[in-house]
Amino acid sequence: MPTRKQPSQEQINEVKTRFLDKLVTEPPKVPFNESDLERIRSNDIWITQLLEVFKLDVEKTIMRLWEICAWRESYGANDIIESKLNKEYLHDGQIYVHNHDHEGKPLLIVNFSKHSKSKNQDDLIRLIVYWVERIQREDYLQKITLFMDMTNSGLSNVDIDFVKKIISLFETSYPNAPNYIIVHQLPFLLNAAFKVVKNFMPAEALEILRVTTKKDIQEYVNKDNCLTIWGGTDDYSFEFKSA
Hints:
Shape: globular
Domain CRAL-TRIO: 82-238
Organism: Drosophila hydei (Fruit fly)
Strand content: 5-15%
InterPro entries: CRAL-TRIO_dom, CRAL-TRIO_dom_sf, CRAL/TRIO_N_dom_sf, ER-organelle_contact
Oligomer: single chain
CATH superfamily of the largest domain: CRAL-TRIO lipid binding domain
Radius of gyration: 18 Å
Protein name: Motile sperm domain-containing protein 2
């Protein structure tokens, strides 16, 4: 993980105080979710993470935290449950959480060999939000590693618009969540397409982006946490389990 400067308590307090003051003087038209406000009031973890990502820029952190809270309320991020998800996508093994990177952060795996452009992108993004929220409820505001698995995928599987939507989701709504963004076993034929994607990625995402193969994946995911198709020892087969 790239080294990021640690915010001071003074910077954390300034973000918190000014954000909460703004709630009083310029309240949003739609009130923010009380769970999110309690997260801000009760401890410093969320603000600390955002300050780190935004290089201790207090103004930017306040602005982005406000935007994130507005999105969370409008999207219903706190209320996404299994019954509100596409059942087929929930169980088909394209998007799921399994194992950890070498720093102990959960792997949010997107298996592109199971992707099709005919799938509803909004439903897929909602499934990603479900998993991020589930992880961060089970282990408070835990970071994750987004693992875009291109193993055995071809031109029919790789959907540039979908990749851009995933990147945009983390950039706008969960900038503090990714530990790494790993693109694994990118087919040679897709190099040019991926260069297009990189052009849309913010600097914060490029800092943690890693493109891996079987030769070097264990720099980021230990062998016993690697699936056998990645060159590891884990022969796991996906099966959805309720929280």
